[in-house]
Write a structure and sequence with these properties.
Number of strands: 19
CATH architecture of the largest domain: 3-Layer(aba) Sandwich
CATH superfamily of the largest domain: P-loop containing nucleotide triphosphate hydrolases
Radius of gyration: 26 Å
Strand order of the largest sheet: 4-3-5-2-6-7-1-8
Length: 652
C-alpha cells in the first residue's frame, strides 16, 4: 500500500519495520505524519486477512479516528468505547485503552488473528489517573501481536522500548523525528508589549533579571519588576495584522474560555460574505444535530457572527462537533478552547495563543510542563498551507520566571514515568487466569523496570496487601474467585463497593431509577466549587444509608491493611438522573444539580457504561438484569446516546 505522497525518512523507516513484522515506537512532532504509518499497518494487515486494534486515550479521539477510518475503509472498521459499540466483529477495531485492557483481562478470543495493536498518544503512560491502564494494556498484549506506539512528546523512547523488549522478549524499533514539517516561531506578550525573541523578553519583559520564582516573589521583586497588563485585544490585533489567522487560543478553565471568547468577539473578523456563509453553515449544522433550540448554541451563534467560537468539556458533545466542523471550514477565525482540544483532534491552525503558562494541577497552580507546551504549540502550522506556525505566549513575570519560560519552550519533554496503581478488578482477573503466578506480572511492569529496589518493595507490598484484603473479604480463595469475586472482577473501578452491595443483596432490591442513581453516584466526581443539590430524590436517603455503611466497612478494612481508601459515592447527579428517566427535557436538568451540559452527558454516558458492565457479568439474577435493562433504556437516549450521535456524524 502506498500514499499519494513521498514518505519522509522517518515514515519510511517505520514502514520498513512494519513490513518486517517488527514492533515500532515512533516519536515525531504533531503534524509530521504519524497517521500515515498507522494506515500502512492497517492496510498490510487487511491484505493478509488479519485484524488490527487501534487504541486512543479519549473517546472524542476514538470517535474521530472511527469517522476518518470509516471514510477510508468502510465496514471493515468497528468501534468499542464502552458507550458505543458499532461493528464489533470488524477486522479493524477502534478502542479506548480501557476497553482494550479489559478485553485482554477477560481473555477474549477476538485477538487471535490480531497482527497489530496501535497505541496512539502512548505518552499517556504518564497520566496520573489513567496511565496504569496503558501500562497494563502494553504488558498484557499477546506476544504474537506487534505493537506500533505513536507519540509527539516522549523523550525517553529508548527506555520505554527497552522495557517492552524485556516484557515481550522481542525487539522494538525506535524511530525518532525532531524536524517539524512546519517550523514554529514563538512570540511573547509581556509588560503590554510584543517581544519577538527570548532576548527581547528578558530585556524588556523581565528588566534583564533571571531570578527563579519563589513563594515570596511578589513581595521581594515588586519594587523592580512591575507587571503591566497584557491587553487581549492588542495581541489579537497583532496576530490579525500579521496574517496569522485562523488562531487557536488556549486557556485553562471553562469560564475563562467563555469570557475570552466574548471579549474577542468585540472585534469583527469577517466580511459580509464570510458572515453569511458561516451563519448558514452554523444553522444547518445545528439543525442536523438537533441543536436549534439549545441555549448555549444560541449564545454561541452571537459569537460566530463575528468569526469567534469556544470549545470546552462543559458543552454538549454535538455542539463541540459543530464548532470543530466550523473551524474546519476556515471561516471561524478564532477558537478559544481548553487544552483538551490539543489532544489528537486534527484541527491545526496558523497560530496558537497560550493565555498563561500557569494552571491548576493537583489543587495548586504550577507552571505547565514542556510536554504540555509541545502538545498545544504543535497545533500551530498547517502542513502544505503555512510556511511556519506561530505561537504567542502571554507572560506575567510575577507568576513565571524567565528561566521557567525557557524551560517550557526549549526544554526536553519530561520523561514518561510509570503510574502503576493496579486496581482490585485487575488483580481479580489476573488471579482468575494465572492463579498464584499472577504476581509475576509485577516484575514485567514499567514501574519495576524504572524503580529502585526500595520502590519495588513498596509496590510489591501494596499489591500483596490488596490481594490479602480480597481474600479476607471473601473475593477469592486458594481455589480461585468466589461468586462475589467473579462479580467484582467485571466492575472496573468500583469493585469493592459494588461487590459488597451485590453480596448483601442490595442490588437485587433496587428499582431501575435507584440503580441508575447509584451508578451516577459511583462514577461522578463533583468539582470542588460545585454546590450540593437543594433537594435530593427520596430514594437517595435510603441509598446513602446503605452506601455509607458499606463504604465505612470497606474503608475500615483498607485502613487496617494500610491501603488507600475506596472513593465514596457522590449523589449530586441523582436529581438530574431521576428527572431524565422521567422524561424531563434535558435543558432543565442542569438547574437541578449545578452541572454543565457536557458534564451531564459525560456522567450519564459513564452510567451507561457501568450498567453495561453490570449486565454482562455472568450469574447476575434475572431481577437485577431486568432492572439494569430498564435503566439503560431510560438513560441512554437522545443527547446521551453516543452511538446515535456517531451515526449522525457519519451521515453528514
Amino acid at each position: 500500500m502506498t500514499h499519494a505522497f513521498e514518505y519522509d525518512p522517518f515514515q519510511a523507516k517505520a514502514i520498513a519495520a512494519i513490513e518486517q513484522g517488527v514492533s515500532a515506537l515512533v516519536a515525531a512532532p504533531t503534524g509530521a505524519g504519524k497517521t500515515a504509518i498507522a494506515e500502512y499497518a492497517i492496510e498490510q494487515a487487511l491484505a493478509a486477512n488479519q485484524s488490527v486494534v487501534y487504541t486512543a486515550p479519549v473517546k472524542a479521539l476514538s470517535n474521530q479516528k472511527y469517522r476518518d477510518f470509516y471514510a477510508r475503509y468502510g465496514d471493515r472498521i468497528g468501534i468499542l468505547t464502552g458507550d458505543v459499540t458499532l461493528n464489533a466483529e470488524a477486522p479493524v477495531l477502534i478502542m479506548t485503552t480501557e476497553i482494550y485492557r479489559n478485553s485482554l483481562l477477560e481473555g477474549e478470543r477476538r485477538f487471535a488473528r490480531c497482527a497489530w495493536v496501535i497505541f496512539d498518544e502512548v505518552h499517556y503512560l504518564d497520566d496520573p489517573e489513567r496511565g496504569t491502564v496503558w501500562e497494563e494494556a502494553l504488558i498484557l498484549t499477546p506476544p504474537s501481536v506487534n505493537i506500533l506506539a505513536l507519540s509527539a512528546t516522549i523523550s525517553n523512547a529508548e527506555q520505554i522500548a527497552a522495557w517492552l523488549t524485556d516484557v515481550h522478549g522481542r525487539g522494538i524499533h525506535v524511530i525518532r523525528e525532531s524536524h517539524r514539517p512546519v517550523p514554529l516561531k514563538v512570540t511573547f506578550q509581556c509588560q503590554g508589549q510584543i517581544q519577538r525573541t527570548p532576548e527581547e523578553l528578558r530585556g524588556r519583559g523581565y528588566r534583564g533579571r533571571e531570578l527563579w520564582r519563589s513563594p515570596d516573589r511578589h513581595r521581594r521583586h515588586r519594587e523592580w519588576l512591575e507587571n503591566l497588563p497584557n491587553p487581549v485585544d492588542r495581541l489579537i490585533t497583532t496576530i490579525r495584522q500579521a496574517g496569522h489567522l485562523p488562531c487557536l487560543y488556549f486557556a485553562f478553565g471553562r469560564r475563562r474560555v467563555e469570557a475570552l471568547a466574548a471579549e474577542l468577539a468585540a472585534t469583527d473578523f469577517l466580511d459580509a460574505d464570510e458572515r453569511t456563509r458561516l451563519l448558514a453553515h452554523f444553522d444547518t449544522l445545528c439543525d442536523r444535530y438537533r441543536l436549534s433550540g439549545d441555549r448555549t448554541a444560541a449564545e454561541l451563534r452571537g459569537l460566530v457572527t463575528h468569526g469567534v467560537a469556544y470549545h470546552h468539556a462543559g458543552m454538549l458533545p454535538t455542539l463541540k462537533e459543530v464548532v470543530e466542523r466550523l473551524f474546519s471550514s476556515r471561516l471561524v477565525k478564532v477558537i478559544v478552547t481548553t487544552e483538551t482540544f490539543a489532544l489528537g483532534v486534527n484541527m491545526p491552525a496558523r497560530s496558537v495563543v497560550l493565555d498563561t503558562l500557569r494552571k491548576r494541577m493537583g489543587g495548586r497552580f504550577s507552571t505547565i510542563r514542556a510536554r504540555e507546551f509541545t502538545q498545544m504549540a504543535g497545533r500551530a502550522g498547517r502542513r502544505g498551507m503555512d510556511e511556519a506556525g506561530f505561537v504567542y505566549l502571554r507572560i506575567n513575570p510575577l507568576e513565571v520566571s524567565y528561566p521557567e519560560v525557557l524551560q517550557v519552550i526549549h526544554g526536553k519533554p519530561e520523561p514518561v514515568l510509570s503510574r502503576l496503581n493496579t486496581a482490585y478488578a485487575t488483580l481479580l482477573n489476573l488471579y482468575r487466569h494465572h492463579g498464584a503466578r499472577w504476581f509475576d506480572i509485577y516484575h514485567r511492569t514499567l514501574h519495576h523496570y524504572q524503580s529502585a529496589k526500595s520502590a519495588r518493595a513498596l509496590a510489591e507490598g501494596l499489591m500483596q496487601r490488596k490481594l490479602a484484603l480480597l481474600r479476607t473479604m471473601g473475593y477469592l480463595t486458594e481455589a480461585g474467585l468466589t461468586p462475589k469475586g467473579t462479580f467484582a472482577a467485571g466492575m472496573y473501578g468500583y469493585e469493592l463497593t459494588m461487590g459488597e452491595l451485590y453480596a448483601n443483596g442490595v442490588l437485587d432490591r433496587l428499582s431501575a431509577e435507584e440503580l441508575a442513581m447509584l451508578m451516577g453516584a459511583l462514577v461522578y466526581e463533583p468539582r470542588p466549587t460545585m454546590p450540593p443539590p437543594e433537594t435530593l430524590p427520596k430514594a437517595v436517603g435510603h441509598l446513602t444509608q446503605v452506601c455509607d455503611a458499606t463504604i465505612r466497612a470497606i474503608q475500615r478494612a483498607e485502613r487496617k491493611a494500610f491501603l488507600p481508601p475506596t472513593k465514596p459515592p457522590h449523589f449530586q447527579l441523582a436529581p438530574a438522573i431521576e428527572a431524565w428517566m422521567r422524561h424531563v427535557p434535558f435543558e432543565k436538568l442542569g438547574a437541578l444539580c449545578g452541572a454543565d451540559d457536557g458534564e451531564l452527558v459525560r456522567g450519564f454516558r459513564m452510567v451507561v457504561q457501568l450498567l453495561r458492565q453490570l449486565r454482562a457479568i455472568p450469574g447476575v439474577s434475572p431481577t437485577l438484569k431486568a432492572a439494569t435493562g430498564q435503566a439503560l433504556a431510560a438513560v441512554n437516549r437522545d443527547v446521551v446516546d453516543a452511538e446515535q450521535e456517531l451515526r449522525m456524524t457519519l451521515a453528514l
